[in-house]
Amino acid sequence: MERLDLKRLTGARLDPFPLLADDAPPPADGAVRVSLARLEADGGHLFAAARRLGVEVPAETSAERLRPWLDRLALVAIEVPTFSDGRVFSLARRLREQFAFGGEIRATGHLLADQAEFLLRSGVDSVEVPSLRVIESMRHRLQLYGLWYQDAVDARPTIVELRHGRTRRRLAS
Asked: I want to staple 157 with a disulfide (CB 3.0 to 4.6 A). Which of 58, 138, 161, 163 is the partner?
């Protein structure tokens, strides 16, 4: 799998958070991600065992279901089953705005380069896709635009705010 940090436009610093099988013991150290079912069944033990813990969730997962663990999770990886499934944007935005989740949000699966800006603007930090071609295309797309009319989760001011010298307080980007 290829990874890309949407803000830094590199995958070099991203922790891979390998997926731990539901029946495998947690490693002594390092970052891992587990399924939502395993987190719900064994969360306390997992947090005690792993230094950094992430969870992999389907796009249809409600943000409310993740709430009990958000203050301790380092990563929420949202599985995108098809490129036309927009629930990744809604879930990421809810995690950031409603629950002030400060960890990494990673979109995984079937993504298109054209979605890069929207993923970033909705609160997604990184992507994990099977194709290096998609990563390179996303990198290119993210370098095309730097100003926005629409407000979003990220901390970048809109064109209107810049024009009038006003900005609203937002989550750090």
From this structure: 161
